[in-house]
Design a protein that fits this description.
The protein is of the alpha/beta class and about 250 residues long. It folds into two domains: about 5-120, Response regulator (Rossmann fold, 3-Layer(aba) Sandwich); about 125-249, Winged helix-like DNA-binding domain superfamily/Winged helix DNA-binding domain (Arc Repressor Mutant, subunit A), CATH 1.10.10. The chain has helices spanning about 10-25, 35-45, 60-70, 85-95, 110-120, 155-170, 175-180, 190-205, 230-249; strands spanning about 5, 25-30, 50, 55, 60, 80, 100-105, 130-135, 135-140, 145-150, 150-155, 175, 215-220, 225. Helix 1 links the parallel strand 1 (about 5) and strand 2. Helix 4 (about 85-95) packs across helix 8. The longest helix is centred in the C-terminal third of the chain and has 19 residues, at about 190-205.
């Protein structure tokens, strides 16, 4: 039974939401302050976090930043509840690393569907396709991490998912509609508006020259292409040989 932490300043609303989610088969713990939420996250283990950013003792978005900097909490599925729905706020919250965004008032069934989608995306992938290698870049699907020359690249969950989708379709141009369709469970309208921002930040982290990218290429008027290069196969073969050598010792 998945365990959720709901942090909402409105105790009455939080109790109603918690009751609905419990009836849907979740274990739900409720906190009404930022301090209590932090304490529970430090002391207990949860499968997902549902967070109201407007808390009496602080901004919930600060907690989101803290979680995404924490190696143990970085990939905790997180859904943001908010009373405002301006596009800019959605983009900022998603860029900080929230997994999804829902504006109050909301339909309980939509909240349930979004939480299920978050948990589904968080499930590990099959070992057979666990690591994608492209030259200096490794995309570890199982660990939800990317590495460049063996060093972890600090991507938000949205940026990792976008990189993963492009890499899994390497050599093919992906339109924005195709990207958002593939990234099911994200907030499509918000994510679509920020794809260019996410791509820019991915390039800054994985490209030798982000102004002249060789890996994630813009196809004007169409979308994006994750490019393969002649030395990719050579580097992948070398990596596989090294892995085989480790197993033999």
């Amino acid at each position: 039974m998945p365990r959720l932490l709901l942090i909402d300043a409105n105790a009455r609303l939080g109790a109603m939401v918690a009751g609905y989610l419990r009836n849907a088969g979740f274990r739900v713990d409720l906190a009404t302050t930022l301090a209590e939420g932090r304490r529970r996250l430090l002391m207990e283990t949860f499968d997902a976090l549902v967070l109201d950013p407007m808390l009496p003792d602080g901004d919930g978005l600060n907690l989101t930043c803290e979680l995404r900097r924490d190696s143990q909490m970085r990939h905790l599925p997180l859904l943001l509840l908010a009373t405002r729905g301006e596009p800019l706020e959605r983009i900022v919250s998603l860029d900080l690393g929230t997994g999804d965004y829902l504006v109050k008032p909301f339909e309980p069934r939509e909240l349930l569907a979004r939480i299920k989608a978050l948990l589904l995306r968080a499930q590990p992938v099959a070992p057979a396709e666990e690591t994608l290698r492209f030259g200096r870049l490794e995309i570890d699907l199982g660990a939800h991490k990317a590495r460049l020359d063996g060093q972890e690249v600090e991507l938000t969950p949205h940026q990792f998912d976008l990189l993963r989708v492009l890499a899994q379709h390497a050599g093919r141009v992906m339109t924005r509609d195709q990207i958002t369709d593939t990234l099911k469970g994200h907030a499509p309208e918000a994510f679509d508006r920020s794809i260019d921002v996410h791509v820019s930040r991915i390039r800054a982290l994985i490209e030798e020259d982000s102004r002249n990218p060789r890996r994630v290429i813009t196809v004007r008027g169409v979308g994006y292409l994750f490019a393969r290069h002649p030395d990719d196969d050579k580097r992948e073969a070398e990596a596989e040989g090294q892995d085989a050598g480790k197993l033999a010792t």
